[in-house]
Design goal:
360 residues, alpha+beta, Uridine Diphospho-n-acetylenolpyruvylglucosamine Reductase, domain 2, 6-stranded antiparallel β-sheet, 4-stranded mixed β-sheet, 25% helix, globular
């Protein structure tokens, strides 16, 4: 008989492992603390012909009410290794490390590049999957490499940032979730006490300051996120959410121009320039999904029973308690339809769906 190298639990409720607090149980569940247990669990699941889901912090996850019929592996690998490498400060962090702990440590070490990503919930292993970003920065800008376990061969491999195929809120890992398990991530950060600000809302907090230091930038970001209920705080009535539920649409310049003209004619904007739009290096334009939601008539605080739109941020869908994933999905589809009917834009969800699929 083969020795069991991982602890297997049965019928484990997944709602407590998500920030939404929704969803049913996993048929099987295991906490993974080392690579040996990870290999053993994946090998066992393969023998049993079970689907496998890798769970991080559960902050970007929507679990079906009926749960998940396979094996959920919660990544608990921990550890940080910091070093100096020429002009860079390099850190390799294990997949189970809380993301914001890495940001805090970087700022304390005067290592620049992720201070604008402060306050984002979740783990290091999840950061490349979603290519997390905020206030003008994306984690892909500082990723040097990602160590993975190949789920087909159960062998370790090191991927470069280019091989991860990052794009806006997307990556190889998101497009092909069955290919790899992220074990650790290596970041290359800049040396120096000052940071770079690219986002207008954040820049306004430092008017007159030539080069704000990293601590000040992190504190300002946390203050902005807290004002929008985007920092996990159990005392905040908006705290049960998955953060931004929809990604910001990316369209051509011509499509953005047409949309701005339509917004003016429909009375949703006072002028074409009043519609938020952010030019991208490839010539396309990123729109503000939250603005579209509000201008379509769904304001902050909109409720549908036990779920609703955050009172502080139009992009966050909130579970107020005693609701279901079906309630949340009903709300999300209502938001999508309302925006499409008003602007002709189809919003795309940002979270991962487990045990269910997002209706196309």
């Amino acid at each position: 008989m083969r020795k069991v190298l991982f602890h297997l639990r049965h019928a484990v409720p997944l709602a407590p492992y998500t920030t939404l607090g929704l969803g049913g149980a996993a048929r099987f569940f295991s906490e993974i603390v080392d690579a040996q247990a990870l290999r053993a669990a994946l090998r066992w699941a393969g023998e049993q012909q079970l689907p496998v889901f890798i769970l991080g912090g559960g902050s970007n996850l929507v679990v079906a009410d009926q749960g998940f019929p396979g094996l959920v592996l919660r990544m608990g690998l921990r550890g940080q290794a910091w070093a100096s490498d020429g002009d860079d400060v390099v850190v390799e962090a294990q997949a189970g490390e809380p993301w914001d702990d890495i940001v805090t440590e970087a700022v304390q070490r005067r290592a620049a590049g992720i201070e604008c990503l402060a306050g984002i919930p979740g783990t290091m292993g999840a950061a490349p999957v979603q290519n997390i970003g905020a206030y003008g920065r994306e984690v892909s800008e500082v990723i040097r490499g990602v160590r993975v376990l190949d789920r087909r061969t159960l062998e370790m491999a090191d991927l470069t940032a280019a091989q991860c195929a990052f794009s806006y809120r997307d990556s190889l890992f998101k497009r092909d979730p069955a290919a790899f398990v992220i074990v650790s991530v290596t970041l290359a950060l800049g040396k120096g006490p000052a940071g770079v600000i690219r986002y207008a809302e954040l820049a306004s907090a430092f008017a007159g300051t030539r080069r704000p230091d990293l601590v000040s930038i992190r504190d300002a970001v946390l203050a902005l996120r807290r004002k929008k209920s985007m920092v996990l705080d159990q005392s905040d009535p908006n705290h049960r959410s998955a953060g931004s539920f929809f990604t910001n649409p990316i369209v051509s310049t011509q499509a953005a121009d047409r949309l701005a003209a339509h917004a003016v004619s429909a009375g949703a904007a006072s002028s074409a320039s009043a519609m938020p739009r952010f030019p991208l290096p490839d010539g396309q334009v990123k729109l503000a999904a939250g603005w579209l939601i509000e201008r379509a008539g769904l304001g902050k605080g909109f409720r549908m029973g036990p779920v609703g739109i955050s009172s502080q941020h139009a992009l966050a869908l909130v579970h107020y308690g005693k609701g279901s994933t079906a309630d949340l999905l009903r709300l999300a589809l209502h938001v999508r339809k309302t925006v499409h009917d008003c602007f002709g834009i189809t919003l795309v969800p940002e979270p991962v769906f487990l045990g269910m699929t997002w209706p196309s």
